[in-house]
Write a structure and sequence with these properties.
Blueprint lengths: L1 E5 L1 E3 L6 H10 L9 E9 L9 E3 L2 E4 L2 H8 L2 H10 L4 E11 L9 E8 L6 H17 L3 E9 L4 E8 L9 E9 L9 E2 L2
Antiparallel strand pairs: 1-5, 1-6, 2-4, 3-4, 3-5, 3-10, 6-8, 6-11, 7-9, 7-10, 8-9
C-alpha cells in the first residue's frame, strides 16, 4: 500500500468553483482505475474550517505501484500538469489502513495530519503507534476510514482519515471531499502492514 498526495495552492481570490467544476467533469476518470484503492478529490478554501489557503490536494491510497505509475506517467497526471503546472508529488509507504465505523457512508471531509518522526525515536515503536492511532481514528463515530503512512526520506508520518460528517474527530488540515474514486478500496489491506 502506498499513499500519495500533491497540493496545488491557488491565489487567495481564486474562484474555487473552477476546481469544483473540474472535479465534476473529470473525477469519474479514476472510478475504475486498476491498482487504486481510493482517490479522494480534496479541496480547501481560505477561511473555511480554519484553512489559510485555497488548495486542490487529492490524496491517494494505492494497492499497486503499477497502478500508481500508470497514473503518474499517463494522461491523467499530464492533463493536471498542463492545467496547473507539474506539482511536487509526495509519497509515503503504507503502515496501516482501517475501515471506519461509518465505512458505508459517503465521505464529506478528510483530515490529514503530518508529523516528524523524532530523531532518536525507535522507528518500530513510532510505526506501531501510528498504526494503533489509525485504528483509533477509524473506530470513532463518523469515520469512513483511516490510514497511516511514512516518508522515510523525510522521516515524516501522515495520518489520513475520511469522515461522513462535517465535524471530524481528528486533528490536522481539514479538506472538503469533492468526489471519491474507490475502485479497489475493498482490496486495500487492513491493519498494520509489517
Amino acid at each position: 500500500m502506498h499513499a500519495m498526495q500533491y497540493e496545488i495552492t491557488l491565489p487567495a481570490d481564486y474562484d474555487m468553483g473552477i476546481v469544483r467544476a473540474r472535479v465534476a467533469r473529470l473525477g469519474h476518470a479514476l472510478d475504475d482505475w486498476e491498482g487504486l484503492g481510493f482517490k479522494a478529490y480534496l479541496m480547501r478554501e481560505r477561511g473555511v474550517q480554519g484553512s489559510p489557503v485555497n488548495q486542490y490536494a487529492p490524496f491517494y491510497l494505492w494497492n499497486t505501484v503499477r497502478g500508481m505509475n500508470l497514473f503518474l506517467w499517463g494522461e491523467g497526471f499530464r492533463r493536471l500538469s498542463d492545467d496547473f503546472g507539474r506539482p511536487v508529488v509526495r509519497q509515503w509507504t503504507g503502515l496501516a489502513h482501517e475501515e471506519g465505523a461509518a465505512a458505508g457512508a459517503p465521505a464529506r471531509v478528510a483530515v490529514r495530519e503530518r508529523r516528524a518522526v523524532p530523531e532518536g525515536a525507535v522507528t518500530g515503536e513510532v510505526a506501531g503507534e501510528a498504526a494503533r492511532e489509525a485504528a483509533r481514528l477509524a473506530a470513532r463515530g463518523g469515520a469512513v476510514c483511516a490510514a497511516a503512512a511514512v516518508d522515510t526520506a523525510r522521516w515524516e508520518l501522515v495520518l489520513f482519515s475520511l469522515w461522513a460528517d462535517d465535524t471530524p474527530e481528528a486533528d490536522g488540515d481539514v479538506f472538503r471531499v469533492l468526489h471519491l474514486s474507490a475502485p479497489e478500496r475493498a482490496r486495500l489491506p487492513r491493519g498494520r502492514q509489517w
